[in-house]
Amino acid sequence: MFDLTGQVALVTGGAKGIGKGIARVLANAGATVIIADIDEAAGKTSAKELGAHYFYLDVSNQESCKQVVAAVKRDFGQLDILCSNTGIFPQCNLATMTEQHWDEMHNINLKGTFFMVQAALEVMRTRGYGRIVITSSITGPVTGFPGWSHYAASKAGQLGFMRSAALECARDGITINAVMPGNILTEGLQAQGEDYLAQMRAAIPTHTLGTPDDIGHAACFLASREARYITGQTLIVDGGQILPESPEAIQ
């Protein structure tokens, strides 16, 4: 376990799912963790459970993002780690997708990443240190799935943003990387139904779904001091899902 004692970490979308797993692992590594989420009830409950703190956040609102980062600096004196994790993934086929569907997805997943990273960089640059970890996905950058073209575009966009942003702060002691989860057993994934879960398990060489803590451990590594020489990179955590050339390869 990497030691994050004395570091302050902000996890967006940390009330549930992958975000909660990231928050839990960072807290266990010794960081002071702030969960920022639009779901106030779940956010406060998770913060209490993990010994963390909670701030309300709407990542689609730039002023909300700035206010949360300012509050972290005010209350804790520093911001060492940002895990920009907030995301949504409602399914919608391309034939029936509306501009509203598209905009909602990108406002939260992609624009929200931009807002949070921009706000965090302003604080991190003053100390010459920072670790930013973006939660992307294998869907979009590597794979595709019917009904998630808008989601896939937002997740691929995050990686393009990350690589150029990493160059802009490479000399400031700040790294920006991304984790790319496969199928992780969260509340959102469970809502897709057992048929979907069984289909996903069958497509994964381990025949298991990942846990939020699996993503948390990957994020913890990229957020550590030891990962200082890694920036603009991605880490796939998917149980080998993208490896097989055909279903016969994993029967």
From TrEMBL:
Keywords: Oxidoreductase. The keyword Oxidoreductase applies. It comes from Oceanimonas smirnovii. The gene is fabG. Coiled coil: none annotated. It is an enzyme of class 1 (oxidoreductase). Belongs to the short-chain dehydrogenases/reductases (SDR) family. InterPro entries: NAD(P)-bd_dom_sf (IPR036291), SDR (IPR050259), SDR_fam (IPR002347). It holds the Pfam family adh_short_C2. This is 3-oxoacyl-ACP reductase FabG. It comes from the Bacteria. The keyword S-adenosyl-L-methionine does not apply. GO terms for molecular function: 3-oxoacyl-[acyl-carrier-protein] reductase (NADPH) activity. PANTHER family: 3-OXOACYL-(ACYL-CARRIER-PROTEIN) REDUCTASE, 3-OXOACYL-[ACYL-CARRIER-PROTEIN] REDUCTASE FABG.
